[in-house]
Amino acid sequence: MNLKRNLPLQILLALILGGGAGLLWPRGHVLPGGFEPYALFDFLGALFLRALRMVIVPLITGSIISGVASAGSGRGLGRLFTRTFTWYITTSLLAILTGLILVNLIRPGIPGGVPVGPELGLTLQDPQMAAQLQQGSASDLVGIIQRMVPVNPVAAAAEGQMLPLIFFCLLFGIAVGSLSPEHRAAQLLFWESLFAVMMTITGWVIMTAPLGIFGLMAKVTATSGFAAFLPLLKYGLTVLAALVFHATVTLPLLVRLVGRLPAGRHARIMAPALLTAFSTRSSSATLPLTMDRIENGAGVSNRVTSFVLPLGATINMDGTALYECIAALFIAQAYGVSLGLGAQVVVVLTALLASIGAAGIPAAGLVMISIILDAVGLPLEGIALILAIDPVLDMCRTAVNVWSDSCGAVVIAHNEGELGVLTDIVGNNHQDPA
């Protein structure tokens, strides 16, 4: 195994080494010559978070506009696209709500009623921020909806107002997809080029992730020692419980009720692809196998398979959106902030809308949680809390992402009038409905 090319392994080693360095040189420890390791840990972590924040606005802008516009171009925003988009938005929203309910019931960031953040050296710099985030009522929903529509999209981008920026990018992408072919091609060339440039820059930033994560983890353990890892167990179990519920209850019920199809048979057919997604942690790497199982195993036509699944790899991230919602609220709880209704609605909407454009982004989970924390005004330093067990959770949420894509494919194919979907009839499986 080539360590230089294996970023997940590098990050895992950075977590281990950072944890060890923080235990070896706790906060306040001074080496000969007056050098304090904690200052280096803080510098590395802060620099990485600033670089991550640097790429968010142009990256999410290029990603959403190019993704939505290209999805509609050439095929029109017709019935198949509408059904596919509706499925992905609905399942992502249900996944986020599942996570929201569980994290509010279990409250993993407040074990025994005591926030874990101060114990780990994480405190809000602005005391008024907690009061602002805790406020919230049903009347706040009107303000949230109003703020989704930016008076000045450029100002929203400059100020990092993610929710109105994402909303505007979605509208812009839909509008580009509806243009005449020559104008659409010109717009797509620009936005896809911007996205390609930002993917390159983001790739450079992510290459520095091991150093940044080393600093973040070392800073946390230098402050709190082994106590830093104890709250993660409850948090990890909360995420896993929500993922399992969405994968084994919500999605199968939709397959059964909306598609009137046997969810159990579909799960058996998809097992190889789901295991591959779990082991590779990549929906894109699993896409060829997913398409094979849907087309040759579930009996979905090539017309539906070739449209629904690649689009799902671009805009559908049920597992990731669920995870980001729980992670954001866990971090808020750790800081001692009980997010009000308004702030929680912002989390839900941001997780939902950001997931539309984040699927193709490297380290999408890290980028998305940064977007959500920015949207509700929480410090990005809280990311250090969740990095230690992220690789395990990433495997699970990737499998859920692929499972949702595949469920959407069979339901949409059935509703398009295709015969033989998830049956023993194979003769007409690859024929478009008359």
Order of helices and strands, N to C? Answer: HHHHHHHHHHHHHHHHH
> So how many helices?
17
Strand runs, count = 0
Number of domains: 1
In the CATH hierarchy, the third-tier topology is known as Proton glutamate symport protein
Give the overall pLDDT as a whole number. Answer: 82
Query: What is the CA-CA span between the terminal residues?
Result: 51 Å
β-sheet strand percentage: under 5%
| Residue windows where pLDDT falls under 50 for at least 5 positions | 425-434
Radius of gyration: 22 Å
- The top-level CATH class is Mainly Alpha
Explained architecture:
This protein is mainly alpha-helical. It has one domain: Proton glutamate symport protein. It contains 17 helices and no strands.
Considering the chains and any ligands shown, give keywords for the structure:
mainly alpha, 72% helix, 0% strand, globular
Task: Summarize the topology.
Elements: H1 7-24, H2 37-72, H3 79-106, H4 127-134, H5 140-148, H6 153-158, H7 162-177, H8 181-207, H9 209-224, H10 230-257, H11 263-280, H12 283-297, H13 302-315, H14 318-334, H15 341-358, H16 364-376, H17 390-415
